[in-house]
Specification:
Number of domains: 2
Structural class: mainly alpha
Shape: rod-shaped
Number of helices: 3
Strand content: under 5%
Largest sheet: none
Order of helices and strands: HHH
């Protein structure tokens, strides 16, 4: 009985150590993802500006811009109107 309890404690201790190690690894991954957020926001803003400019060109009669806007819409990408 005592041997079983000792084995159980060792097993639980090993599992707890693994849980803490995994938790630490996940925290590091989350931190690395957060470090990229400003870059993602910058690229997102640039893409929005590019899409809005393309939409303005299409509205002004530019056939190539209209093709791009149509292709975006066919792929489920909605371009926000910018006035």
């Amino acid at each position: 009985m005592l041997l079983g309890l000792v084995a159980l404690c060792i097993l639980l201790g090993a599992n707890l150590t693994q849980v803490f190690a995994t938790h630490s690894s996940l925290e590091q991954v989350i931190q690395r993802q957060k470090e990229g957020e400003p870059t993602i926001a910058k690229v997102d803003a640039q893409l929005d500006a590019l899409a809005s400019g393309t939409q303005r060109l299409a509205a002004g009669g530019n056939a190539n811009a209209a093709k791009i806007i149509t292709a975006l819409a066919e792929n489920g990408i909605q371009v926000k109107s910018s006035h």
